[in-house]
Amino acid sequence: MRIVSLLFLVFFINSAISQTDFNEKIIGTWQFDTVVGDISNAEKDTLMSTDVLLTFREDDSLIMEVGDFALVVTYELDDTLLIIGKNQYIITKIEDDTMSFEHNADGISLRYTYKRKPRDE
After folding, report:
1. Theoretical Cys-Cys bridge with 55: which of 29, 64, 98, 112, CB 3.0 to 4.6 Å?
2. CA gap 100, 114 in Å, rounded
3. Considering only CA atoms, which of 21, 33, 41, 34 is closest in space to residue 95?
4. 70-102, pLDDT tens digit by residue?
5. More confident of the two residues 23 and 106
6. Average per-residue pLDDT in the chain?
7. Which of 57, 31, 32, 56 is nearest to 110 (CA)?
8. How far does the signal peptide extend, from start to end residue (predicted)?
9. pLDDT tens digit string along 23-73?
């Protein structure tokens, strides 16, 4: 019984740490890099444009910039689930300079990759 309790505790702590990591690692500005999947039948997603910049801020606001147009919205991050408006994305990776997430809609699965922009650009 102690082993089961210990394993549960280790799993719980690890889950809490990974959630905190995504909450901290997502902060910053990200530029669209690639999308993988069959986009021919996919509904057009504003996150799928080469000139999109996403700036995640600590106050759970997100600045979405496309050219000279900017829109500020709120986002929610619950473990790996990223919610922007009515869209839900599953974050699969956030490393130093790369963020990947998936979006499934109408049976179509798309995987987005964004690159972190350096602060001085």
Report:
1. 29
2. 6
3. 21
4. 999 999 999 999 999 888 999 999 998 999 999
5. 23
6. 81
7. 32
8. 1-18
9. 999 999 999 999 888 766 656 666 667 788 999 999 999 999 988 999 999
Q: Which residues contact 13 (CB under 8 A, 6 or more apart)?
A: none
Distance, in Å, from the CA atom of 40 to the CA atom of 120, rounded to the nearest integer, reads 36
Rounded CA separation 35/53 (Å): 15
Of the candidates 23, 19, 28, the residue with the CA atom closest to the CA atom of residue 97:
28
Task: Give me the CATH code for the 2-116 domain, please.
Answer: 2.40.128.20
SS3 helix, strand, coil % of the chain, rounded to 5?
Answer: 20, 50, 30
Q: What angle do CA 48, 64, 78 make, to 5 degrees?
A: 85
**pLDDT (0 to 100) of residue 2:** 56
Question: What is the rounded CA–CA span in Å between residue 48 and residue 35?
Answer: 7
- Cα–Cα distances in angstroms (integers) from residue 9 to residues 1, 3, 44, 75, 102, in the given order: 12, 10, 43, 30, 29
